[in-house]
Amino acid sequence: MATESNLPRSGSLTGEQWIQKDNLDWTTVQNNPNTSSHELFLDALYHGKWSDAAEYLRCDKSLIQVCDEKKQNILFYWANGVKQSQNAEDATKWLEEHMPPELIKKMINKVDEKGETLFHAVAAIGQYQVMQWIVDTFPELDVNQTNHCGCTALHKAARNGQLEAILWLLEHRANISIITVDGNRPEHETLKHKHIEVISYLQPPIYWPDHLDLDIQISLQAKYDRAQDIRLSFSKAQQFAKKR
Asked: Where are the ANK repeats (predicted)?
């Protein structure tokens, strides 16, 4: 996504800094104003500067189709803008005012160079309100869709410790047992990235036989949980080394 480091400069201010000041004429002094307007439009979306983004779009309607070098369309930047502005309602209103429904649906399902969609991106930053909006807009969406590495939105949310997104995904039948090409389930992602506080939500349940006494079930569950903690404390590399 666009950052200050990859935006062109003009004097002492970067394009991003001009966006922050709502100065929209920055591109007029650039050697390549078309490229600069693309970058600033994405940057305005990234920071949730909806009025600035609308003004750029008014001047050049083709900006709606812009993608970055990672093949991420404008919705990836818009999603971060939702987080920055902390107002999902205004963000979705802006989107619906400036994009036809068919194009929104097309972009929701479009993958970037990693095979990820907008759904992966918003799960990673914990924007469960936007995830709900995506499902409302695109009800046929598969919440268990994977990228090129086999990661689901649940893997992404788990990797970043996004509990609210994790709970939303679980409520919408996200599969905790899907394994990536590296052999990791979402629970492994939480451990690798030290988000231990959410790991209990991602462990598969155990269905004890009905005839077992409750005290025995509690004892066995405690032993199982301890065994899981020990198992997960070893990295994949250590596990593979033992097999050799």
From this structure: 149-181
